[in-house]
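User: Show me an example of a complex going from sequences to structure tokens.

Assistant: Sure. Here are the input components:
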Amino acid sequence: MAILVHEHTRVLVQGITGSEGSRATKEMLAYGTVVLAGVRPGKAGERVHGVPVFDTVIDALRVHPAITTSLIVVPASHVYAAAIEAIAAGIPLIVIMTEHVPVADSARIIAASRIAQVRVVGPSSVGIISPGKGKVGAIGSSEIAEVFTPGRTGVLSKSGGMTAEIAVTLRRAGLGISTAVGIGGDVLIGSDFVDMLRAFRDDEDTDAVVLFGEIGGAYEELAAAYLASGVWTKPVVAVVAGRFTETLPIGTTLGHAGAIVAAGCGSYRSKVAAFADAGVRIADRLEEIPILLHQLTYARHLAPSLRVHADGLIVHA
Amino acid sequence: MDLMEYEGKLLLQRYGIAVPDGVLVDRGVVPAARRYPAVMKAQVRSGGRGRAGGVQVAQDVASFLPAFARCVEADIAGMRAERVLIEDFVSAEREYYVSASYDTRTRGPVLAMSVSGGVAIEAATIVPITADAPIAPTAIADVMDRAGVPTAHRAVLAECIARLWTCFTEERLLLAEINPLFMTPDGRCIAGDAKVIVDDDILRPQERRFLSLGGDIAIIASGGGASLLNVDALMAHGGRPANYAEYSGNPSADVVRDLTIRVLAQEGLRGCWVIGGTANFTDILGTMQGFLDGLRRILPRPTYPIVVRRDGPRKTEAFAMLQDAAAHEGYQMYTFDSATPMEESARIMCKLAYQ
């Protein structure tokens, strides 16, 4: 089944006439995803790659009630209004690609999405892809679409670029992906690791999960707490980026807006320790991901008296 | 971005929060005598000011200038203050801590408060506040209840907290913190300090993050996540990064060119590592054209090894362009795509730079 995005996904693009919106639309169509409509106030009646443009979300829904997902690709200052419009219209999945959305706006979007019970992914999400089934956003553009091969590993990443790099690494090891989700690296995000892990837990097509996290915030620590809570049974391998920041001044912000150097919770050490306590294996290099996945998968089929040692040897527990 | 204390206080004043009477003085100016005791505070954008000697109190006219001199000479995390804020001493019957910020656990705004603020701040009480609404009086009462604020102080504190919250939401700040918040014997709230963090995404969304790390391998990284992982990898192989610099999204060639010039202008370089993952939608030809434009501006021409590892749309054309430039213009350049793991290119970079 995969999560969030599948053959039945029907997309609306808010900001379809902009360069990024137009490109994402073209890429989604090329991948076989159905894009029913786009929105750009004042451009109703136009078409972008054959997709009809409407003035408002409600107008688009009136003509295309089958829409399941909205992709928001409008300038940062317009994201709040666009997201509220999609939330108010009750679109069940809203993916915000735009970067540099003010935290205050994200907070209000998240609050509204909770009340309306719709799922928001992002801001700063590269998108979601269920290889061979569909994709929403800029993830896996034309030339590299084939690096995302269908399979049974779920991928969750704060970093858009790393979704593709992890896909390359898995593919080289003969592993494929059920769904890869760019959750974004902002301070506040609509869906965090825990939200997505819950979806993967109930997904019959996902056997294991790879998680790419980094310093800053509490999302990795929250994920570890969830994984350790007893409701989770699938193997998880995590990458935590930013070990070198341990010596930098507290409060320094790095690549993503949410990657803020912290002491205690939010630090590299805190995240790695939390994952280790939850039985999550940490890959220091991407190339270790498939090895650890194999080990963890293998370990699940061993007799209780045996376990896989860190270097891959099977030892008596 | 962190505002200086005086900038933060000006902002708080605009929202009706009282601050001590004071004057801002440039470091080179001999300040005029004020009422005593006078409090002097070095204006810097970092914490730890008090411990470093950046806060001085002059009890009388004789100690005024020496205290000012100590204040401007204080080394605060490698910085010296350009300006000093000189304020009247506030005698307080209590020092509170209060702040408005965002919490990734609740994914929304939170109000934090402690009845023991100041330098020896004790654990604060943290209460989530509903985003997209003015703060409810009940929420303020709740945080004061839990923090244990005495009844006599409540009305005036509630007013101050409401104003702080308005400032935080109206200005779309990431942090608005007052520590200490003085409660005077005559029942007034006065902000003894102001720590305000402005959202860079509102202020300067196009800014590229650059950080000096003191080593000798220049780094031009793409991708917010990949860049962190790759600095880790370089250091794991014994590499000494000169800097952290990152561009992400799909920037124009000019942006990459300017970043390249900034990175390669550093002294004492032994290598340059242009590193990124497999791009989803970044135009590799366009961004590498920007790198090459920047590289060509660096004179004399770099002789150190340049390792490029990148993949994504139009990579083949990009690498052909780079190799052509290297062959004709004499750069020691090596290009790798996703067939070579990022981490492997870190090893190659270190080997070439330090052989």
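The lines above are the inputs; the final block is the predicted structure for all two components together. The longest strand of chain B covers residues 173-183.
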